[in-house]
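seq:
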Amino acid sequence: MIHGEIHQNVRQYINGRWETSATTGVSANPSDTSEVVAEYARADRRQVESAIRAAADAFSHWSHSTPQRRADVLDRIGTELLARKDELGLLLAREVGKTLPEAVAEAARAGQVFKFFAGEALRGGGENMASLRAGVQVDVTREPVGVAGLITPWNSPLAVPATKIAPALAHGNCVVFKPAELAPACGWTLAEIISRAALPAGVFNLVMGSGREAGQALVDSPLVDALSFTGSARNGERILQAAAARRAKVQLEMGGKNALVVLADADIDHAVDCAVQGAYFSNGQRCTASSRLIVEAAVHDAFVSRLRDRLKALKIGHALERGVDVGPLVDEERLARSLAWVGIAREEGAEHVWGGEPLQRATAGHYMSPALFLATPGHRIAREEIFGPLACVLRAADYDEALALCNDTPSGLSAGICTNSLKHAMHFRRHAEVGMTMVNLPTAGVDFHAPFGGRKGSGYGPREQGRHAAEFYTTVKTGYMLA
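struct:
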């Protein structure tokens, strides 16, 4: 797809066939709202149920396919994603507003994920153990769960789906994939690539539409054995309650209120780099964004001053424009929500340092200057996830108070610390109440082969990514046999 081209005939993919729907939707370019990126079909409950039945019917065959066949399919998908990363990155940048270099990197990451799980399909493995009884053999094996319903967000519309689809297929499951409505073209393009990878009909299905109808149909179906969801805590809790009633397996990734701690012994310029990347790149529209910057008192003022200078120098503009640091927010609603948070911060008495204003550019888009406030732990901007380009600085007297502030949140996804003290770094890694810790790194950078997930209100169920994905996409069987 090239800039300015409308993506036509974006349809459902059900049981090996492309289908239209009774209703359609449109996605627009957040950098230039006059440009339509995709016209897409919106699935109704009947189509979702048809996709689920197709996946259930295909499961017996696919679950007993050879590891080599599954590996070949995934490798083929990964190869095409990598070969088309520039084209796919352009599409992603146009549809969700990520800067072009970041969008191309995400497309490449999606390809690498499929390649990784091609290898995992071959590695497999099991366990043999001695029985407590003479002459008895004990084997522990993993088997696929069944039909996996995968509901993904708009902010990483290629990488997050890859993180769910690839391990599901690698371990022999069948898939019904529902992408976010804000990124239908990315979801459709990924599905189109998968559709040409020699999978049997019904093994992979795409349904696009609203969470209220298409998503809820996945959650409610007794034929869906496992549900993996990335999105808001509110929707995740609803999914958990509904799935628990029918004992479906559930995996939830639900964001966080992540902290970056900066100690007095840190390299301040490097700490500012970590803060800018973690809090403001992608407009803070990442579940791992560090919207709380907890700074030791001795360097608080110097850190804030340098951070303000960096924010002033950031280039905000069209996602495809060369040299742009931050593109637009994804849509008008998210822009309005972020601007509303600026108003809340002011009303509650947080000290405004920089930004938080709507911006005008050559094209009509959802632009906003990155906002920075000085806050106290009681301010809402220090407690609630914003998912936008707003961060606050909290002053801490020492390391102990900084750690306590870091853990003072119902979320627990990612937390970072900038320090030159090995003692504090090691203590922080052990005592930060999160699923992932970063030392002298932004909170938002993760590797695709390492486990991903959070604690407390940030996550539920087994971790995503890497070898740990098998915990969700397989079930353990223990076999006893008289030798």
